[in-house]
Design a protein that fits this description.
150 residues; mainly beta; four-stranded antiparallel β-sheet
């Protein structure tokens, strides 16, 4: 009788040292040794664990942070792990419908998947776009805008 303990042990060891988050594009965020990268459905590392933090892919891009613990900045990478939108933001949220919220100099704004601003950072707070609308707070009051910035 053959036992499969070594395989189970490896799986348990992997699960004990990595955290995973699946996305719809078939890539999974993985954290190893305090750095984040991505694996595919076959557990093969496809983007090395080199980021300070990383989110799941949406709209073909993922928010990723680099720069170290005291100067980490967020940008957006493609599925090859290359920055398509440079890491210049204090914070970034995943894309939803081609729009992502980004924070710069303590203000929030919205960008498209090319990195162009739909609305430059000028809001106190924002909520992610949903069904074509994004919520923002300016001068203490909440409002909504379309993905065209109107």
């Amino acid at each position: 009788m053959r036992r499969s303990f070594p395989t189970c042990g490896l799986i348990l060891l992997f699960l004990a040292t990595a955290s995973l988050c699946q996305n719809a594009d078939g890539l999974y965020v993985v954290e190893l040794g305090g750095k984040y990268g991505y694996i595919n459905q076959h557990s093969k590392i496809v983007v090395p664990t080199k980021f300070d933090y990383a989110d799941e892919f949406t709209d073909g891009l993922a928010a990723a942070w680099t720069g170290g613990p005291n100067n980490s900045k967020a940008g957006f990478i493609n599925e090859s792990g290359e920055f398509q939108i440079p890491p210049v933001y204090e914070e970034a949220r995943p894309f939803n419908g081609g729009v992502a919220a980004v924070k710069s100099v303590d203000r929030w704004g919205f960008i498209d998947t090319t990195g162009d601003f739909i609305v430059r950072p000028s809001f106190e707070q924002v909520h992610d776009f949903n069904e074509g609308l994004g919520a923002f707070k300016a001068a203490g009051k909440w409002g909504y805008m379309s993905s065209a910035g109107e």
